[in-house]
Amino acid sequence: MSPKDGSAHGTSDTPAAHAGTIAIGADLTVHRMGYGAMRITGPGIMGPPADHDEAIRVLRRAVDLGVNFIDTADSYGPYISEELIAEALHPYPSDLVIATKGGFERPGPNKWTTNGRPEHLRKALDGSLRRLRLDRIDLYQLHRVDDKVPADEQFGALAEFVREGKVRHVGLSEVDVAMIERVKRIVPIASVQNRYNVVDREWDEVVEYCNRNRMAFIPWYPLGAGSLEKAAGERAAEERVERVAKRRNATTLQVALAWLLARSDAMLVIPGTSKVAHLEENVGAADLILTDEDKRELDQLD
User: Fold this and answer.
1) pLDDT tens digits, residue range 247-266?
2) Is residue 237 assigned to a domain?
3) DSSP-assigned states of every residue in 237-278
4) Distance of alpha carbon 146 from alpha carbon 151, whole angstroms
5) How many domains does the chain have?
6) 8 A C-beta contact, residue 51 and residue 58
7) Residue 222 sits in a domain of what CATH number?
8) 113 phi/psi in degrees, rounded to 5
9) Higher pLDDT, 167 or 241
C-alpha cells in the first residue's frame, strides 16, 4: 500500500466527506463517516455471509461514497471480514485506512473469549496482515484488555509491534480513562472504541478525554444494531428520535448518526450493514446537520 500521510485526495465532494475529517495519530486523516465491517459475516458473526456478492458490493460502494476508514477484526467470522475486504478492495486506494483488532477467540456463534497473551496477539496480527495483504496495519486495536493476562504484557506486545513496523498506530476498546492513561505510559494511543450511541452514554467521560487529547473516539453499536428502542430500553427515548427524524425528513438511524457526529469533533462513526441500500442511508447522515432545537431534544435522552 502506498503512503497515506495527510488527507484523502480527490474525495472532498463525496457523501462521506461531508461528515468532515479527523486525525488518527499525527500522520493520517480520514473522513469521520467510516464503515464497520462486522456484519458482512454470517449469523452470530460467524462464517461467511448469506450473500457473498452483496458483501463485496457493500465494500466497494462504501469506497465509492468516500468512506476511507474501514473497521474490522480478526474475530469477525472469524477471519471472514478481513478476507472479504481484501477480495473487494485490494489493491487498496492510497487514502484508505483499514483498522483491525486482535484479542478475541471465537468458540462459536455469538461467543467471544478474550485472549491477550502476547503470543496470541502476535499470531493474530500476523494473520491479519496476511489476510488483508498488508505489510503494516494502520490502526491495530486491542479488542479487549484480558484480565487473565498481566496488562503490561499485552501493552508491551502492542509497543513491540509498532517498533517492528508491523503497526502504525495502536487503539483500545472498552476502556476507561484510567486504563488509557496506563497504556499510554507504554505505547502511544491513537483511538478508543467503546460502546456509545444516542441512548447509551456510559462513556461520556472517555469521549471528552479523547476530544481533549486529540484522539479518535470510535463508537461501536452506534445504531443500537438498528433498534433504538432496544438500546434505550424505553419508548419515550425512541419517540424523541422519531420526532426529530420526522421534523427533518430523515430516518431515525440517520438522526442517531448525525447526533454522534455533532456530539464531538473526536467522533469517528462506523455504522455497519450487509446491504448497499442501508449503507447509502447511513452515509447520507453526513449531510444531516442538526439544529439547536434538534440537539436539545436529543440531549434529553439518558
Assistant:
1) 999 999 999 999 999 999 99
2) no
3) HHHHHHHHHHHHT--HHHHHHHHHHHH-TTB-B----S-HHH
4) 7
5) 1
6) no
7) 3.20.20.100
8) -125, 125
9) 167
| Residue 299, in any domain of the structure | no
Active-site option among 35, 76, 92, 196: 76
pLDDT score, position 229: 47
Provide the CA 127 distance to its chain's centre, in angstroms: 20
Distance CA 241, CA 248 (A): 11
- The three three-digit cell numbers of residue 290, written as one number: 442538526
Does 58 score more than 50 pLDDT?
Answer: yes
Quick check: is 3 in a domain? no
Catalytic residue list contains 76: yes
Cell triple for residue 302?
439518558
Please tell me the distance from the alpha carbon of residue 71 to that of residue 140, in angstroms, as a whole number: 10
Q: Which of 92, 96, 44, 52 is nearest to 71 (CA)?
A: 96
C-alpha cell at 56: 463485496
Q: What residue numbers bound the domain in which 24 lies?
A: 15-228+255-289
Grid coordinates standing for 26? Answer: 499525527
Q: What is the pLDDT of residue 200?
A: 86
Cα–Cα distance, 167 to 158 (Å, whole number): 8
Tracing cell 421534523 back to the chain, one arrives at 247
Classify residue 89 by its DSSP letter: H
C-alpha cell at 140: 491495530
Cβ atoms of 218 and 37 closer than 8 Å: no
Task: Answer yes or no: is 297 within a domain.
Answer: no
Instruction: Give the 3-state secondary structure percentages of the chain, helix then strand then coil, rounded to 5.
Output: 45, 20, 40
Residue pair 17/66 in contact (Cβ under 8 Å)? The answer is yes
What is the separation, in whole angstroms, between the first and last Cα of the chain?
Answer: 43
More confident residue, 181 or 11: 181
Neighbours of 235 (CB within 10 A): 9
